[in-house]
C-alpha cells in the first residue's frame, strides 16, 4: 500500500458523505435530515462521518464549499459574438440558474437555517451569489476593456445587473413556487440587456460626464 492510498480512500469517503448529505438536504431539508440517514445513504459508518465532520452543521458547510469548488462556469458566461446577443444570453443564463428548482430549494432551506446559524448563511452567500456576481463583474470588466461598455465600477454594475435580473421572478418563485415560462424570461432578458447596454454605452457615459 502506498502512502497516498489511505488519503485517497479518506477523500473518497468524504465525497460520499457530502454527496449523500446534499441529496438528503435537498429532498428533506436540513432539520429533517439525520446523521443516521446520511450514514445509510453514504454507505459509511457513523464514526467515519464524525472523523470528517464533527457536527451536522459542519457537513452542510462542507456541502456548500464542495458545490462552490465543483461548479463550472455556465456556457452563457462565455463570450461568443456581438455584445447585445451575448449580454442577453448571459442574463437568460442567470435567470435559469436563479430560478431552477434546485437553487430555489437551497434558497428556502438556507433562509431558515441562516437565522439559527448565521455562519451557514454566510457560507451560502459566498459560495452562491457572491461567486456569481464576481463572474458578472469579470464579464462586464472585459466588455469595458473592449470598449463595448463604459464600466467604471464593474463590481457595482454587476450587483445592479444581478438584482435587476433576478429580483421579481425570484421573489415570485420563492413565495408561490411559480416561475415565468421560457418565452417570458427571454423577453425579460432582451429588455434588460437592451436597457443595460444603453445605460452603460461608451457614448452615453461620455455625454453624461462632459
From TrEMBL:
UniProt keywords, alphabetically: DNA-binding, Transcription, Transcription regulation
Every HTH tetR-type domain range: 11-71
Keyword Transcription: yes
Residues within the DNA-binding region(s): 34-53
Record field: transmembrane: none
DNA-binding is among the record's keywords: yes
SUPFAM superfamilies the record matches: Homeodomain-like (SSF46689), Tetracyclin repressor-like, C-terminal domain (SSF48498)
InterPro entries: DNA-bd_HTH_TetR-type_CS, Homeodomain-like_sf, HTH-type_TetR-like_transc_reg, HTH_TetR, Tet_transcr_reg_TetR-rel_C_sf, TetR_C_Proteobacteria
PROSITE patterns in the cross-refs: HTH_TETR_1, HTH_TETR_2
A Pfam family this chain is assigned to: TetR_C_7
GO molecular function: DNA-binding transcription factor activity; transcription cis-regulatory region binding
Protein name per its UniProtKB record: HTH tetR-type domain-containing protein
Organism: Tuwongella immobilis
Species classification: Bacteria, Pseudomonadati, Planctomycetota, Planctomycetia, Gemmatales
Amino acid at each position: 500500500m502506498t502512502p497516498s492510498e489511505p488519503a485517497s480512500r479518506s477523500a473518497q469517503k468524504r465525497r460520499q458523505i457530502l454527496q449523500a448529505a446534499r441529496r438528503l438536504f435537498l429532498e428533506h431539508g436540513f432539520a429533517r435530515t439525520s446523521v443516521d440517514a446520511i450514514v445509510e445513504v453514504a454507505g459509511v459508518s457513523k464514526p467515519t462521518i464524525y472523523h470528517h465532520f464533527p457536527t451536522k452543521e459542519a457537513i452542510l458547510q462542507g456541502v456548500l464549499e464542495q458545490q462552490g469548488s465543483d461548479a463550472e462556469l455556465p456556457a452563457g458566461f462565455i463570450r461568443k459574438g456581438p455584445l447585445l446577443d451575448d449580454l442577453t444570453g448571459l442574463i437568460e443564463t442567470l435567470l435559469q440558474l436563479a430560478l431552477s428548482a434546485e437553487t430555489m430549494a437551497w434558497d428556502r432551506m438556507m433562509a431558515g437555517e441562516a437565522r439559527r446559524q448565521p455562519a451557514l448563511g454566510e457560507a451560502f452567500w459566498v459560495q452562491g451569489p457572491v461567486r456569481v456576481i464576481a463572474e458578472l463583474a469579470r464579464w462586464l470588466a472585459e466588455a469595458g476593456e473592449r470598449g463595448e461598455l463604459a464600466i467604471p465600477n464593474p463590481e457595482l454594475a454587476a450587483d445592479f445587473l444581478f438584482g435587476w435580473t433576478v429580483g421579481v421572478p425570484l421573489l415570485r418563485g420563492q413565495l408561490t413556487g411559480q416561475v415565468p415560462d421560457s418565452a417570458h424570461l427571454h423577453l425579460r432578458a432582451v429588455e434588460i440587456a437592451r436597457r443595460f447596454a444603453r445605460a452603460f454605452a461608451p457614448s452615453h457615459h461620455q455625454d453624461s460626464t462632459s
